[in-house]
Structure formats: structure tokens, C-alpha cells
Design a protein that fits this description.
The protein has about 350 residues and is of the alpha+beta class. Helix content is about 40%, strand content about 15%. It has eleven helices and 13 strands.
Amino acid sequence: MADNEKYIKPEELAAYLRALFAAAGMSGDDAAFSAASMVRTNLWGVDSHGVLRMPIYLERVLKRVINPAPAITQTEGLPGPMALLDGDAGMGYIVGRAGMELAIEKAKTYGIGMVLARNSNHYGAAALYARQAVEAGMIGISTTNVIPNIGMKGNAKPSTGNNPIAMAAPLEEEFPFVLDISLSAVAGGKILLAAKKGEKIPKDWAVTKAGEETDDPVAGFAGFLLPVGAHKGFGLSLFIDLITGVLSGGPFLHGIRSMYKHPDEPSLTSHLFIAINPEIFLTRESYRERVREWANMVHGTEMVEPGMRQLIPGEIEYRKEQERRSSGIPIPAELIRDLAEYSDRLAVHMPTALV
């Protein structure tokens, strides 16, 4: 165990986060779902989107920038498999759950469900909602728009968001296929780490505030990220913003608000949820047989190193979850101090494991 972090059992962490959300004004069910979503994300090893976000979420709920009791409404008159939701500035987790639940219901009837949601907030890891479809026996896709923080070389300012997209499908394995990616060439955390180590960075990772090429991680971190695959990642990011913000009738690109830069304003993000029922195309047994054969082919890929096996997206997260269910979830010391402040403000007992 590192000196600057402590470990806590996932069940204990979920109960603590739930109590904090409830004390801030969220209903018991919404508080529990939001807490569970954050803990699941940490279990997968995606710590950037787990409990790390709890302080900013709590602050925004307390300020009522995030509506703790949203009245999520559906636009009337849309055709069969389509729907549009207004999230009423609710917690992104709650709007996200409602969006994918509706997409799943549509897919049961029409074979596919597509739901857009606007007037929402940060919804955590996109994989949460793609996996929600898998848990209903369906293929799931989810994406959302975020503030512009990436751009092409030649841009003087960032021009599109590091928009994530997640895709998931049931497999006859211990884990589902899950691919959850954002569209920058590298995570900002890697640039920060290079700065701390005094290392240079590749010139296709980031640019300076003025949009100039750089191998200096400090200048790159202060500037903006470059997209993965150059024009490929850039174009995909723009398309995601188009089919979320533009298509939903919500804000897009620079009209969105960062929960960090604009802590007193709703984020106004939009989300997309798609559920596809595989039984429209194949019987349940046929689908199972075919994905079993598919997974065996992938795992059977000939490898350079003896004893190595080609992994399927979702497999690393599965392994990490098994590890952390046993060892616990690591919580950095700085985050523990932040959580302790909210425990005091909200009169919520802090777990002994974090004290």
C-alpha cells in the first residue's frame, strides 16, 4: 500500500458515498445509483471517473446547480424507436440511467432504441450505460459531448471536445465486450506525469496555449490536447458533438459549460443512448454460439511472446474488478482530505478505513 493512499472495500465506499449524496439532498434511490456507478468505475480501474469526482459533484448538488430531484421528461410525438429526454439539470448518472432504460424498452419492441437526452450534467464513464444494455441482453452504445479541449495542429484554441464513446456487447465469457474510449491522443494525466518526471513528450500529444508544436509537457498541459489519429479522432469528436448537442437541441461545442471552470452553472451536456436487440437477427442460442466462436478466434490469435494471449476489450477491466473486490479500492490522501471536509459539513460519518 502506498503511503499516500488508503484502501476501502467497495461496499463500504458505496454506502459512504450514498450517505453523502443523500445528505446533500438526493433521494435514496438516486443517491444509491450514483454512488454505485462511481464505485463500479473505480472497480474497473478507471479512477479518473470514479470517486475522484465526488467533491465537485457534491458541491454542485449543494449549490443546486445539479438538480437533486430532477423531473426528467420525454418529448411527445417522436416515432417508435426514437425518444428525446430533458434531464432537468439532473445528476448525469440519473439522466443516463433513464436514457438507456428507455432505449432498452424501445429495443424490446422495435429491435433498436435510440434516445437523446439534453439539459444534463457530467455522466461519468460512458461504459456504464453501454454495459446497462448488456445486462439486459442487448448491444449498447453511449456517448456524450463535453467542452472543447482538443484541437488540430494549426488551431489557436481547442475546437472540439474530448468526447467519449462506449460500445458493449454480451459475450459467452466471464465479461462482456466493452470498449470505452475518448478521442485525445493521450490522457492529460500522462502529460502531467511527464512534467513531474522532467521528461519530454511526443510532439503529437499536445500543443501550447498559442497552438504551437511542443515537446515540453508543462507547455503542453497548459495548452490543449491533440486528437488521436489526427483528422480521424478530430472528425469523430465533431460528429459526436453533432449527434448529441446539435441533434438534441441542446448546446454544443463552446456552448457547453465545464463543471470545473463554471462550477455555479449547469453543464448542459447532451447524451446519446442506443440499444440493439441481437435476437432480431439471431436466435438467442445462435448468438451465443457465434460470439463464443468469435471470442475463441480472438483469444487464439498467434502471439510473438509464448504464453501471451490476445485480450478482448473489457477483459482488463474484468481482471481489475476481481483484484479490487479482494484488495479494496485505493483512495489518494488528498481526496480523503476533501471527502473529510464534506463529511463534516454534512454530518456524515467517515468510514474507519479512510480515517
